[in-house]
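Blinded run. Sample ID left blank on purpose so nobody reads anything into the name before looking at the predicted structure. Input follows.
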Amino acid sequence: MKITESRIENLEEILSIIHNAIIDMESENIYQWDDIYPDRRTVISDINNQSLYVYFDEFVIKGIIAFDERQEKEYETINWRYGTGRQLIIHRLCVDPKYKKQGIARSLVAFAEQFGKMNGFESIRLDSFVDNIRACKLYLMGGYDAIGIVNFRKGKFICFEKKL
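Blinded prediction complete.
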């Protein structure tokens, strides 16, 4: 297993994983992603900005994570606990449904945390769809604090933060 920066050659495989994840989430009545987001343009932008990482195992991409310093304008309404330094923002975390419940999401989040520590970030921030109970539990169990709620196109999202 290794986590590495994504390349444009990975695009179709990544889009397939996202598509499969959308179908899987919808089967569990989780409607946070669709054909509008995250779309091909978003993934290409992540790759070009060097902010998308892939979890490779046995020559297969099993999961992805995208993070950088860009914060959504909705985050301005949140009373964050850590604001004196730089914040690393996780934008997208996705595991191919064929490989869920294998600790891949935890490994990807741990990778982002290590990246943040090594690069001088004060904290990690992210948001998770309120109906995605498994994702919210992942962050809470990982030491993230639920700080507030923001509204995006698909509904309410819980904002989480963790000091690095």
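Unblinding after everyone has recorded impressions. The CA atoms of residues 95 and 116 lie 21 Å apart.
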